[in-house]
Amino acid sequence: MNTHSANPDASNNEKVVLITGSSHRIGAQIARTLHEAGFKLILHYRDSKKGAEQLAADLNLARSESAALIQGELSNVEAIERIAQTATSVWGRVDALINNASTFYPTPLGTGTGDDWDKLFNSNAKGPFFLSQALAPELKKNNGNIINIVDIYSEKPLKDHTIYCMAKAALNMMTKSLARELAPIRVNGVSPGAILWPETDGEITEQSKQAILEKVPLGTTGQPSDIANTVKFLLCDGPYINGQIIAVDGGRSTNI
Description:
- The chain has a single domain, classed as NAD(P)-binding Rossmann-like Domain (Rossmann fold, 3-Layer(aba) Sandwich), CATH 3.40.50.720.
- Helix content is 43%, strand content 14%.
- The protein is built from 7 helices and 7 strands.
- Strands 3-2-1-4-5-6-7 form a 7-stranded parallel beta sheet, with helices on both faces.
- Mean pLDDT is 91; it is low at 1-7.
């Protein structure tokens, strides 16, 4: 017998969501938010095994047999197809795919390499496309959803991050294109602004942080919950929203 968390949405109790890159930061918050809404979760990770296992343990403690783990690379088509097959087999269905996994780092012109290109495009464009393709038949059966975590820099560039911006621009266009091709599957994107600063020490200076915040009309960073709640809205309360990229950026995209 399952022990349910407080007031989960009964309509979501049997719905299953696969979240890529779900072990920490925004991905983990999306997982917690959707779990609270009553969804069952398949938590994908690549290297962050410890964080993923802890998150799954916490969620299963709150509601038993409600979270499962899948490890896998998003750089290899065969591995991606295996992830899709395994995800479908866990509870016999997948109702939504959240393409959250992302690699982010600068590649100033003159320093970019083929390896940089592959790393940035694999997680931000190749993985989401081939995982969407592999899960499309299953999602179509369930009138499912694909939600891509894009970036405001998919439309306006960030200096020294050309390859990353190009990869996110590809994800932006993929969202709109698949919305036409895969209906009744709904395909949408959430485009974060300044939510969490990069984890790598020295990646961004305090001066750079202040310069970014000066471009945000609301004058502050957002929270991972802002992204997670938007994902939840698209899944639960947006049945006629399709092919849209929702900017969650405090108004920054009006002032880049």
